[in-house]
Design goal:
Blueprint (H helix, E strand, L loop, with lengths): L1 H27 L7 E8 L4 E8 L9 E4 L3 E7 L5 H10 L4 H11 L15 E7 L4 E5 L8 E5 L2 E5 L6 H12 L4 H14 L9 E7 L11 E7 L5 H16 L3
Antiparallel strand pairs: 1-2, 1-8, 2-9, 3-4, 4-5, 5-6, 7-8, 9-10
Helix pairs in contact: 2-3, 4-5, 5-6
Length: 253
Amino acid sequence: MAAVRAFLTTIAVAIVLVASAPLAQEQERPPDPIATFSILGYDPATGEVGGAVQSRVFSVGNGVLWAEAEVGIVATQAIVDVSYGPQGLQLLKKGLAPADIVKSIWDGDPDPGLGKNPWPKAGRQFAVMDAKGNYAAFTGPKASPWAGNKSGKFCTAQGNILAGEAVVNNMIEAFEKTPGPLSLRLMAALDGGQAGGGDTRGMQSAAMLIVKKDGGVWLHNDVVLRLQVDDNPEPLKELRRLVEMHAKRFRPQ
């Protein structure tokens, strides 16, 4: 009986080890890159600065867009280092130009990896815009293709793991041609990007952030609009519903 119990114990341990192996591998596997298309924009008529983003990841708004009134906005994505956001805002406060900020952050990135996995800085993508609409963008040489950025008037579009260059081209065109408040122009840009093929993996979440000194509702609120659609099969449709609700309520024609 003792021998039987020992044998059964050995089998049970083996089963546990085999069952736990995939879990351990799952825990060690790095998260997916934030495959994303985003746009940063400035409205000289109102002084608002903002950004919008869509991706096939859960809650893309959790870390991509960083903004502060009278300072500017940053988008950080792809093989993302979220610290690029607050770093960018701090350097804007010190008066550095967006192009100099991009170089400073990139050069200062120690490329530490993520846990035990590589998370190469050469795959990062980010953009910086100051409070007057001046901007600079960078796409790392190892960002997952298609990856790139496109410049426009008071706007910059960037993305990775996209259907192609038409995504960012459409975004710039839509932003520049759409009338109305900044929120609707940013929304049009996202719709344009999706019409160009969007994220090759599909859609899941979207977000928008717009700031202006005392531009929000209530007292001493610099956030004009902060919206997140975290998990939705049609995130842009839901984001547009919210954007249009806000525009109708707070920006009546």
